[in-house]
Amino acid sequence: MTRKPGESQFSLDFNVQPKEKTEPTSVSVSNAQPVPRSPGILFDVPNQRKATPEQTEASNLQAFHNYLRNLNIRPEELSGKNILDVGASTGGFGDIAARYYGAKVISIDEMCPGNMADVLDGDSKKLFNLPAENMNLAERLNVQDEPKFDFIVSNYSTPYVFVNNEQDRRGKWKSKKTPFEWRLEMTTRIHSALENIYKHLKLGGKAILYPLFLDLEEDEQMSVDFGNDEKRDVREFNGVIHEILEDIKNEHGDNVDIEFEKVPQKDGTNFTRLIINRKNIQ
């Protein structure tokens, strides 16, 4: 889970059912528009504990559409799809995708927000304390085969979580490890996470991960605005990402296609949306 203190991507209350089976209002997800810096909700209800069910639902729907906008996915694309949400916090995205669009979603997070319990039944399953680099879904779900997905999504999580969590607010690495040890650990963890994501795609499936920082100029990489007056230095991180993606392309050859999409920010810089396609080649 990658949200900063005081932020929440979704409210913890996702049991409010819509009064009518109508689709929520859709929003444009054109990648020509700047997207919000923060992964937090767009409509933050003051004093969430006292919010009415209607306010909570409206807040969650705002967050849902913000999520889709970051990933450049149209809501109707979710219909009937099998989706894995990596770094899903409380799993609110999956709840709404299943409720309104008939998607079947498994949400995983490396932490367990609010001591929530795993949810193993229904169309919005949730698995906590499960990092992407150790993605043993079949074991956790008590099924025979590892599930495969039409979409695997990650919004402000994998691999963003590594540089976000492991640097302080000034962009300095927190660890006492040597640069070599730190680079080796970062390479190992991110490579395992991205390889697991690829292996869990169906043939013809797509993984969309946001944000990366591969379209920033050299000076911009030294001090990326992560919100809340926090900065990160992504130069080493970018180098590792390039090496890992090159390894994945070399390993899987024509079976994988990797794309990068520039995502304009309000300050004039560009973040990157990473898309990994598993080709339908028999």
Task: Spell out the blueprint of helices and strands.
Blueprint: H1 53-71, E1 82-86, H2 92-101, E2 104-108, E3 124-127, H3 137-141, E4 149-155, H4 160-166, H5 179-199, E5 201-212, H6 218-221, E6 224-225, E7 231-232, H7 235-252, E8 256-264, E9 270-278
Parallel strand pairs: 1-2, 1-4, 2-3, 4-5
Antiparallel strand pairs: 5-9, 6-7, 8-9
Describe the structure concisely.
The chain has 282 residues and is α/β, with parallel strands linked by helices. The chain has helices at 53-71, 92-101, 137-141, 160-166, 179-199, 218-221, 235-252; strands spanning 82-86, 104-108, 124-127, 149-155, 201-212, 224-225, 231-232, 256-264, 270-278. Helix 1 packs across helix 2 (92-101) and helix 5 (179-199) packs across helix 7 (235-252).
Describe it.
With 282 residues, this protein is α/β, with parallel strands linked by helices. The chain has a single domain, classed as Vaccinia Virus protein VP39 (Rossmann fold, 3-Layer(aba) Sandwich), CATH 3.40.50.150. It contains seven helices and nine strands. The strands form two sheets. The chain has a seven-stranded mixed sheet with strand order 3-2-1-4-5-9-8, sandwiched between helices. The chain has a two-stranded antiparallel sheet with strand order 6-7. Strand 6 and strand 7 form a beta hairpin. Helix 1 crosses helix 2 and helix 5 packs across helix 7. The N terminus is likely disordered.
Enumerate how many helices there are, as a single number: 7
CATH architecture: 3-Layer(aba) Sandwich
Q: What is CATH's topology name?
A: Rossmann fold
Tell me the fraction of residues in β-strands, as a range: 15-25%
Rg, Cα atoms, Å: 18 Å
**Content-based structural category:** alpha/beta
Q: What is the CATH class designation?
A: Alpha Beta
- H/E order of the elements? HEHEEHEHHEHEEHEE
What number is the mean pLDDT? 84
- Count of domain modules: 1
Low-confidence stretches: 1-22, 25-46
How many strands, which pairing sense, and closed or not: the largest β-sheet? 7 strands, mixed
- Spatial ordering of strands, largest sheet: 3-2-1-4-5-9-8
Percentage of residues in helical conformation: 25-40%
Give the name of the CATH superfamily: Vaccinia Virus protein VP39
Global outline: globular
Number of strands: 9
Q: What is the CA-CA span between the terminal residues?
A: 36 Å
